[in-house]
Amino acid sequence: MTIFEKLMRPDLKGLKAYGSARTEAGGFKADIALDANESPWPPFGPFAAQCEVNRYPEPQPIELRQRLGAIYGVTPDQILLGRGSDEGMDLLLRLFCRAGKDEIIICPPTFGMYEVYAAVQGAAVVRVPLKQKDWQLDVKAILAACKPVTKLIFIPSPNAPMGHLMRREDILKLCKDRADKSLIVLDEAYVEFTDAPEGLIAELAKQPNLVILRTLSKSHALAGERLGVVIGSPDMIAMLNKIRAPYPLPQSTIRVVLDALSSNGLIQSAERRRILMSERERLVAMLPKSPFVKRVFPSVANFILVESPDAGALMKELRRFGILARDRSSLIPNTVRITVGSPEENDTMLRALGVTLPVPVRSPRLYSLRRATKETKIDVTVDLDTPGFLKVETGIGFFDHMLAQIASHGGFGLALTCEGDLKTGQHHTIEDCALALGEALKKALGDKRGVARFGFTAPLDEALAQVVIDLSGRPHAELMGNLPALAVGTMDSEMMPHFFRSLATSLGASIHVTVKGENTHHMIESCFKATGRALRDALRREGDEMPSTKGTL
């Protein structure tokens, strides 16, 4: 008998799971679906039609579980998907706790929903407070409070509302000491913002009674889509699947999350986490300078808890500037939780609290987009300030190398993938990639305040290539030079003018390219390298002024 069979409510052991239409179909892809009493037509609106909201979704989409499994390092059968991690908490309580008989343990101050779901289920709540000297788990007191009916012990790490990690050794001791008696439910909602984003997932194989909760609301920016994950033993996940709702995830959520977990989506999330983590450290250093702040609690999450001489006055002052924070005085006296926002938002918040800023923090120039046509689907992400990533996959090897040269010599991060029909030619792939890249660069630039605007580069290699770029907002492209060979590798030479015209059009730039030489490979490569070098100069921030006497570009 597994620990899950031992702890499971006896009255649920014989429960037969409801078989929904999609479950009974067994993954069969029908041309005509007449099995679920759905409407054959979607409702009004383009988004509804795109997401097929008139059709029931997969109850536990295999593609989504596979993708999350690859991210977390677990198998799909170790994953249960639900409407936020809150649903996972609720299901665990429903599966294991008998009303009026079983108990859970929480360690206040902590996340309030553990207690709410326990009350709904009729489970008793035993409170073992964190040790106030370091706000860590009081392991001895927790073990002393355990009884034969203690089914679940909830531990958020990083903690809410303070934002620090619980000691790993304390969590593992609870797992071992309660190995066949209780489940240790580790809520890792904020762990991606720490220096160890993998959390304790690797311990699942060693600790059968460890259950991990994750959410995509925080680090993946999907709070509005409500998707959470329970990660644990396949046996336990199978039990939870028996009591979950027939269709817990909307079609729109599934599609949005799959996009967010795509290659470009993960790169964008990682870059944004890096920015937020840097901003967190800046706020920790600056907030003590405010007269409204008495103490800043250490945090490894995407929020900061501060103690104030008067939490009410702090909240009132922030609201005067149109800023919302959260009063946590009910958990810890005179405390306010402040979410780490964008650099501009954080600057406004600091000024509202009376902090003098030495130098305004510039907004990150990071942008992602998808460009889809009948011929191509392109995902592109650029980071103009941090060349921390480089990935190009278009299906045209030499073209991939050329785009990588632009990013490498331009000093910016680039991830670009393209799915296109190359059997009918390269025209759409090369032209559409140029359009997508130019649009992403333009969006990342924003209002172009502070940029150098102009870029010029001299010869490279033995081929003579000169490129002049002006981010003028007036698109124009000229390519002067004769390329001797018809193709280099799998890339047609005749596509060069099309590429630069498309790039200039979507970027809103004037681009002049002059090239001379005898080796077509070197001539084309020189053009792309020189374009990167010219972009490096043009994209460079030199101050905060608008580089135009007209006041706009």
Layout: helices, strands, pairs:
Layout: H1 3-7, H2 21-25, H3 46-51, H4 62-72, E1 79-82, H5 84-96, E2 103-106, H6 113-121, E3 124-127, H7 139-145, E4 150-156, H8 168-177, E5 183-187, E6 210-215, E7 228-231, H9 234-243, H10 251-260, H11 263-286, E8 295-296, E9 303-307, H12 311-320, E10 326-327, E11 335-339, H13 343-352, E12 366-372, E13 376-383, E14 390-393, H14 397-410, E15 413-420, H15 427-445, E16 454-457, E17 464-470, E18 476-480, E19 487-488, E20 491-492, H16 495-507, E21 510-516, H17 520-539
Parallel strand pairs: 2-3, 2-4, 4-5, 5-6, 14-15, 18-21
Antiparallel strand pairs: 1-7, 6-7, 8-9, 9-11, 10-11, 12-13, 13-15, 16-17, 17-21, 19-20
Helix pairs in contact: 5-6, 14-17, 15-16
Give an overview of the whole structure.
With 553 residues, the chain is of the alpha/beta class. It has three domains: 3-7 and 60-261, Type I PLP-dependent aspartate aminotransferase-like (Major domain) (Aspartate Aminotransferase, domain 2, 3-Layer(aba) Sandwich), CATH 3.40.640.10; 269-352, Alpha-Beta Complex (Aspartate Aminotransferase, domain 1); 366-539, 2-Layer Sandwich (Ribosomal Protein S5, domain 2). Helices cover 35% and strands 18% of the residues. The protein has a seven-stranded mixed β-sheet, sandwiched between helices.
